[in-house]
Amino acid sequence: MAMQDCLLKIKGISLEFSGTPILKSVNLSLNQGEIHALVGENGAGKSSLFKCILGIISPSQGEIIFLNESLSGYPIREILRKGIAMIHQELMLIPELTVAENIFLGRESIAGKRMGLREINEATSDLFQEYELDIPVGAFVKDLSIAHQQIIEIMRSVSQKACLILMDEPTSSLTEKEVIFFKQLIFRLKSEGISIVFTSHKMDEVFGFSDKISVLRDGEMVGTFSKVEVNPMSLVQKMVGREMKDFYPKALSEVGQQILRVDDLSCVPHFEHVNFTLCAGEVLGLSGLVGAGRSDIGQVLFGIKKKTSGQMSLKGQAYNPENPSEALQAGLGYLGEDRKEMGIIPEMNITENMSLGLLDTYRKFFFVDQTRESADSIDMQAQLSIHSAKEGQRIQNLSGGNQQKVLFGRILLNNPEVLILDEPTRGIDVMSKFEIYTLILALKKQGKAILLISSDLPELLAMSDRVIVISKGKQMAEMTREEASPEKILEYALH
Ligand SMILES: Nc1ncnc2c1ncn2[C@@H]1O[C@H](COP(=O)(O)OP(=O)(O)OP(=O)(O)O)[C@@H](O)[C@H]1O
Ligand SMILES: [Mg+2]
Predict the structure, then answer these.
(1) Which atom of ligand 1 is nearest to the CA of 49?
(2) For ligand 1, what atom is nearest to the CA of residue 398?
(3) How many C-beta neighbours within 10 Å does residue 287 have?
(4) What is the average pLDDT across 346-363?
(5) Site to substitute for ligand 1 among 14, 17, 349, 436, most atoms within 8 A of C-beta
């Protein structure tokens, strides 16, 4: 291989946080125009490795060579200027600025020339035209879908002439249709010689997008493989270090009595005339594209949004929650799709975050029963396999997937009868997904009624007894697990 083909060489990178090793002498090589998937369980160190490359955190050992030059000691700004860009796990745009302003943020003068608003808009229009993107350059970022925001982050990297883009879970908030577009976009970037390293917990993307796959396990590089050397099952085995037989657990259980009933429910302009029932021990899947109104249905049920007409009833009684705390009282539990909105308090530790809102349960006279609070939380952490470096760890230092599991734990501690789960496995690794599926099935067996909102079609099909498809706020179809197929669901969803 010619020297200039090698774009990035990571040599023996080690990293620790307060004495805990996070990365252990990691090596990785990347060629120009290569698409490289970085996989590993939650907490394996993927985001940390990206942050080392970009100079956001400094490794304790090792060296990163980019275009034959060591990056050691350079500040982030310099590294960005050298042509490395990163799309973070959480998007980093400024919602109150326009698309064009975000693309040119911090670079209002280019090659010594000051750029006014008109120039910025024109340059952005040109760029979008070149990439056949249909996004208004003057729109405020806060009014765009997550998918479009993602594209804007990528286009910002492109306009900065980045030749290496690190993408941390770029597809985790995208629907199937958006993922197809995303795939075209990264292949286009590849054809222009741009290299991409991305992380993903979805095997079809890992195999569908990448040229090479590197596996991190507990901060160690297990190896780099070409797609012919591994298959999804063997790759997962490398990630978790043991054998896995199936991606979805199987369990049959009896469906019980009707618990929840929704009649002609509307929440204009989000959705209209929705009808369904949900029984004890049943998983009802809500499918559709992002923005179709699925999440809004969950939010109305949980008292976050107000219905505009229609009826809801819970065990035969009219049910009309004024707010989430009334919904909680009535026996509902809700896992929202956005961790940040769900109220993770970054400065608090895992136990505190888990028992947030449940303090009444733990109140003894005027004090919080911390022993019981902590025992319950530790029990739940074990049940959910939440891996933290040490006890009492602040939640902000947990990997993304583990944060999601803490939120799940919070809901379960309240012992709800009806669970509304909106994208419960987003950003969660294969092994932990399996654990969450097992948990969902266990809850189902206990007789919980579960409304599952998911963009992950294989997951939705494997977990649901029945599936409802929503498109543009309308209920398009209802089918049993036996009747449902990915093709059928997509056909209704895209209607
Ligand atoms: N600032 C920090 N202080 C202490 N520990 C940290 C800090 N940042 C990350 N960690 C720990 O480092 C480990 C690796 O985290 P990282 O975010 O790199 O994982 P990841 O592979 O990106 O996981 P995910 O798939 O969940 O996003 C985790 O155990 C995490 O708790
Ligand atoms: Mg991560």
Answers:
(1) 18
(2) 31
(3) 29
(4) 66
(5) 17
- pLDDT value of residue 361: 53
Residue 289 has pLDDT above 90, yes or no: no
Secondary-structure class of domain 258-493 per CATH: alpha beta
Range with the poorest average pLDDT among 312-326, 430-444, 476-490: 430-444
Q: What does the pLDDT read at residue 189?
A: 94
Encode pLDDT of 104-150 as tens digits. 887 766 556 677 888 899 999 999 999 888 899 999 998 988 888 88
- 47 close to ligand 1 (CB < 6 Angstrom): yes
206 DSSP 8-state letter: H
Cα 436–Cα 439–Cα 444 angle in degrees, nearest 5: 130
Topology alike, domains 3-240 and 258-493: yes
- CA-nearest residue, atom 30 of ligand 1: 398
Which superfamily does 3-240 belong to?
Answer: P-loop containing nucleotide triphosphate hydrolases (3.40.50.300)
Handedness of CA 169, 170, 173, 176 (dihedral sign): negative
For ligand 1, is residue 56 a contact (CB within 6 Å)? Answer: no
Biggest CA-to-CA distance, the chain = 73
Cα–Cα distance for residue pair 174/181, rounded to 1 Å: 10
Task: Report the separation in Å between the CA atom of 358 and the middle of ligand 1, taken as the mean of its atom positions.
Answer: 27
For 470, the token pair is 């929503």
Q: What predicted TM-score, i.e. pTM, was given to this entire model? A: 0.71
Indicate the domain borders of the chain.
3-240, 258-493
For the CA of 40, the nearest atom of ligand 1:
21
Q: Is the CB of 394 under 6 A from ligand 1?
A: no
